[in-house]
Structures are given as structure tokens and as C-alpha cells.
């Protein structure tokens, strides 16, 4: 077995939850296992890696280069997407039901959801953990756990030890110790041939017990429920009667229909959220006073306008067949809309570097990053949920005037409160902070021409907002940061001549003095030669800080033939824009690398022009070069409820 955690953290954050607490738990688990009196059937390797935030380099280095890596058969990874709280199993596998069963049987405090796994692994979330490295490069299955509470202070200065409860640490330790002991005594760990591959549906019930079954069983349950519902509707259409005599069976059928509606895919867990339960109760209450034809009208799926012509229809068989066909079509439409709803939920939670999910009431909900939620997606989901599911129940009341007046009053009052600014999203309250996240880089960009001479130089403060409110709350306090200095995303030259930490859509740029680091970047083109196979090979040497990046862009039909970063060429190399991230320890050695460019097939009649543009970014995340006078002056002007992560950066571009 392999137990993994990382002890590095992002810049400007203490990293207590991400992930010092994970390593503390692993150390205590190691201590407990070392003192067991009962011998274990299999061994365990504990990996404490110091390069997870640098694009998962630590885990990659171990699983691809360490001599112990070949002995690993499965792993447990403990990470964080919040500060404290419960640790959630949001990934397991791939195709390893025995790992899910191990969690089911061994975890003392289960907390897991297959919905989180399906959405996380769908690729819609710009996030990653060491789980992908071990499963992709090591070809081994595993369990991915993460603390997910208080996501709005994750990766900020508030990620401190005092915010992590002892109960949270104890809970994680109990679970991981029990799971490791179970797996280290299992026969599947020693013989993969006895483990049957497949997908599992799993979720916990109120954190007390786990429910897990093969995905094929879930598919059968969904289809059986669907067939039973259609049969019931067909029988009701053929044999009409008083609705009061069939109230019990109607309640069961409507509940089944809600179960089908709540499932986006046959392989997913069929479950119902709180809002749908309330809707179902309202539907049954109204059904006691309606005839058979009105039962379907009262359900949350069909729009009432489609049924106006059918409610007064006679009870002929053809009339009911028409209703059955329309009900079937509307049920299919409901499946489509449910899928779109799940997609919207996935888009609500997006955060650079990490994303996670919270779920409750047996349905996929959202563990919402307060500063990272996409406002438009929240609005779309809220409006769609209310209009599609609940607006139809207005027709069940005796008088709609009073209900509409009440709803209109509530809407107007809350609209006024929002526009009055009563619900301010941020606070610096130490007991419950909700900071606004901002990135600021003091940058100097230098552009060189074909002769190596400086063509242009620019310096300023590059500002990025990490939430959807942009700078609307900052502008009144710092007037210089306004829409007149806002820079939209561009497609000129390598990354707009900016040393982006991560490319974002909106940027604000304020001119400032030039950055003069005490340890400047040293760049040199060591050689440029024509090869026998018709390419141009260029060898570079760079000496700079521990974190750098290399941007690359070809022109005029030239393309990358090979480079020293990898022996094999991949399809994405054909892209004209490529980026390489370079991360090292505190003392970074000289960086040597080479690229080979295939020149254009035809000479340009206008004369020799640049064939490739290369740019080097240097990020001073820590040390004496991290801060500048202009940067400190700007930081002092930000309000206390803003968390500003800042550093100095140098961008240098050369043309060849």
C-alpha cells in the first residue's frame, strides 16, 4: 500500500489544512501501524512529498523514478480543498470495486459520493490531485480523500492550525488507519487477478453507513422503476376510477417518478433532493381533489399550457393514449433538463488549482467556494429550478391572487435589499472570514527584436480577480483600479507579453516603476545550428529563481520538430502556443534545454522574418525579491477583507 500527502503550500498561505494536517494524520497513522502487535499481510509506504502545488511533481517523481514504486498495488491520498471539516472520499478506482468495498467495510465515519466522482472525473472541473498521477503514470488504483469545509478560506492566509478542530483530525485518522489495516490484510492487494473490474455506485447515509452496489445494478433499478411507472400510467388510462381509492399507489408511483427524474444517467445514484420531496408532498395533497386527468397536470414536469386542452377532454381511450404519449415525451425532456442541471452544478464550482463538491439529502449539491462561484451559473440554476419544478403548483391553490401577491412581495423586498448592498459578500471577521481573493504581480516585460536589441520595455502592476465580482468592490476604495485599465484576453504574441501565473480572462494593469531584482535572470542562447535533417536546433541556458516558465510560439508555417523535454512527440506539440513550467527547490540550478524547429517549406519573398518567439517568465514567490516599494504601497490600500497574494515577476521575449 501507498499512503500519500504533501507538505508544500501555495505562496502566501500557511497551508495548515492544505496539507500540513494531512501529513500530521499520516505520521500518526504510521506511528500506530508501527506499534501494532499483530503482523500485517502486506507492507505500506508513506510518501511525504514537497512538490504537489507545483503541478504534482512530487508524486510524479516517486511513481516514475523511485525503486519502491514497482511494489505499489494501491494507494490512499489525503489532500484538502477547504479548511477542516470532514474528509470526503470523492474518487475511488479506476475500475476497482474492491477499493470501494474496503472503504464501505472499514471506514468508521463514512462520507462519500459517487456523484462527486463522476463530475470530478468528467473533465469539466479545472482541478487535479496526486490521485491522477498515481493512477495515470503508476497504473495503480486508489482512494482520494480531501477536507472540504470552509472552501472560501482555502489557499489564503486564514488556513491556520487554529481553524482545524481536533475532532476533524481524529476522524480522518480513524478512517485512514482502519482502511489501511483492512487493505493490508486483503487478498485483493496481493492478487489483482481475483479482483473483478467495474464501476460502483456509492454514497453514505447521514455519515452513519455506506451504500454501495455495482453500476449495472443501478441501471437495472432505474429501468425497472421506469417500466413500473409507465405500466401504472397505462393501467390508470385504461381503467378510470375515483382517485381517492388509489391514493396509496399514486403516492408510490409519483415517488418513483421523482426518483427517475433525479437521475441524470442510468449509472448514477437515483435519489431525491429536499426540494423535490416538498414538491411531491404538495402534488399528493392536491391530487385528492383532482380527477385522473389532472394528476399528471399537477406533477412538476409538464408545463400546464400543454394540458389545458386535455383536462376537459372526455374519458375516451384515445384521449388517455394521447396523454400517455405526451407524458412520455415530457419525461424524456425532463431527463435532458436534469442532465443540464447537473452540468450547471458542476460549473458553479470552479477554482484555479482545486475544486470539490459537497452533497446533502441524497442528491448532488454543492460545496460552494464563496469566492470562486460563478454568479451567472448560480442564478441560472436557481431560476431554472424554481420555474421548472415549482411554478406549476400555483395552479393547485384556490386563489392565485394571494399567492402571487405574496411571492411578488418577497421578491421585491429581497431585490431591494440586494441593491441596497445589505448582503455584502466579504468580511474580515477573524472568527468567520470571507475574503476576496486578488492576485497582484509587479512585472517588467522586455521585448527583443531579431538582432537581440531591446525593442520595448514596460512595467506595471498586473491585477487579477479570483471571483466573479471582479473589482467592483475594490474600485470605490482604490479608484485607479477601474474599467479604463482593464485588459481583456488577447491573442498576440506569447501570452500577451505578460508573465501570467495562470491565464485568466480579465486583467487590470496599472503602470509602475521597473522591477530590479537582486538576483536577476540570466539568459543565453548557447548555440543555433542547422541539422542534417533540415531543422534548426537552438540550445538555451537560463539561470533564475526557483519558479520559471517558458513560452513558445512558431510563425510563418514553422513548427516544433522536437525538444529536450521529452523523447516522444505528442499531438499537442503541433499547437503553435506551448508552455513549460519549471519548478525547483530554494536554490535552482542552471536550466539547460534545446528545441528543434522545422522552418517554413517556402522562403518568404518579403525577406527573412522571425520563425519562432520564445519568452521566459521568472516568478519571485518568496525571498527578498518578492516585494517592491510600489507593490507594498498598493497592498496597503486594499481593505482588510481582501486577501491579496503578490509577488514580482520578470517577462523576457526573444525572436529568432
From TrEMBL:
Keywords for the protein's UniProt record, in alphabetical order: Endoplasmic reticulum, Glycoprotein, Hydrolase, Membrane, Metal-binding, Metalloprotease, Protease, Transmembrane, Transmembrane helix, Zinc
Cofactor(s) named in the record: Zn(2+)
Domain Endoplasmic reticulum metallopeptidase 1/1-A TM: 320-390
SUPFAM superfamilies according to UniProt: Zn-dependent exopeptidases (SSF53187)
Family as reported in the entry's similarity comment: Belongs to the peptidase M28 family.
Upper classification of the organism: Eukaryota, Metazoa, Chordata, Craniata, Vertebrata
Record-given protein name: Endoplasmic reticulum metallopeptidase 1
Ranges that cross the membrane: 320-349, 361-383, 403-427
Pfam families given in the database record: ERMP1-TM, ERMP1_C, Peptidase_M28
Membrane topology: Multi-pass membrane protein
Source species: Esox lucius
GO biological process: proteolysis
Domain Peptidase M28: residue ranges: 2-179
